[in-house]
Amino acid sequence: MGNNGGTGTVNYIRNNYAALSASLQKVALFILDYANEVLSNTAGQLAEKIDVSEASIIRFCKALGFKGYADFKIKLAQELGNANAIYIPDGISKDDSVWDVISTIMRNEYEDIRFTLEMMDKEAMLKATTMLHEANRIGFFGIGSSAVVANDAKDHFLLLGKAAQSEWDGTAQLLLANSLKEGDLAFVISLSGQSAIPLKILEIAESKGVHRIGLTQNPRSDLVQKCDCALLAFKKSTSVEDLTTSSRIIFSAILDALAVACAAFNWDEYARNIQSTRKNLIV
């Protein structure tokens, strides 16, 4: 299934109802009967009303091809005539103090990481760790905010003594992908999983027999289909526009965990690499 806004969100849910699991059908029935109530509820509040887990709400949105609960609410609001509704991050009101906003956002981001850990596919993470450990050279790729994550990941793996590279410019990333050889690894990061350059990079890597790992928030994206191993990140908060900060933090946390997990294959070797790197950086 994939979200087709042109058919209307409510009709789209009704048309795809039969393809949902029993637990997700329960969510669908409530929304079809009480669509207006969704707009004033967080994912957690809606889950409580329906008597399902919050994870089921997120899975419902993802199963229908929405980016998340926030994206689903926007589409639903547009259909119900509330396109001008203003959404703000969970737990924040216009009357909050600056400190209230700071502390709430930090709690939300903590919850996003905890939620991702609960939802993470353990087998996929273990497979990705093995692939990273066995790779001769790792190319990290990402556009926009994902480029920041890719560059940080490259630095982390270089510190461990792994041959790693990333580029900021899109054309340079395509050239990097073209330089990869069998035994190397392409690690592609994309929020939507549908961006043109990341998908092209995966095509190039595949043509060269290079293994591919993808990190995205969209389980039904083309990126997932083009990877040997797909890692999915989840946002619990319903912030609509957060400059992708929350998503970037989740992605960074996943890659930090993978880097340290790689070190666990041989602590002594990686410890020597880190010690050597730090010694050589002292001038």
Describe the structure.
- With 283 residues, this protein is α/β, with parallel strands linked by helices.
- The protein has 2 domains: 5-79, Arc Repressor Mutant, subunit A, CATH 1.10.10; 116-281, Glucose-6-phosphate isomerase like protein, domain 1 (Rossmann fold).
- The protein contains 14 helices and 5 strands.
- It has a 5-stranded parallel beta sheet, sandwiched between helices.
- Helix 12 (222-225) links the parallel strand 4 and strand 5 (229-232).
- Mean pLDDT is 84; it is low at 238-243.
General shape: globular
| Weakly predicted, low-confidence segments | 238-243
Number of domains: 2
| Largest sheet report | 5 strands, parallel
Strand order of the largest sheet: 2-1-3-4-5
The topology string of helices and strands comes to: HHHHHHHHEHEHEHEHEHH
* Amount of beta strand: 5-15%
* Overall pLDDT score: 84
Q: What level of helicity do the residues show?
A: 55-70%
- Content-based structural category: alpha/beta
In short:
By secondary structure, the chain is α/β, with parallel strands linked by helices. Helices cover 58% and strands 9% of the residues. It has a 5-stranded parallel beta sheet, with helices on both faces.
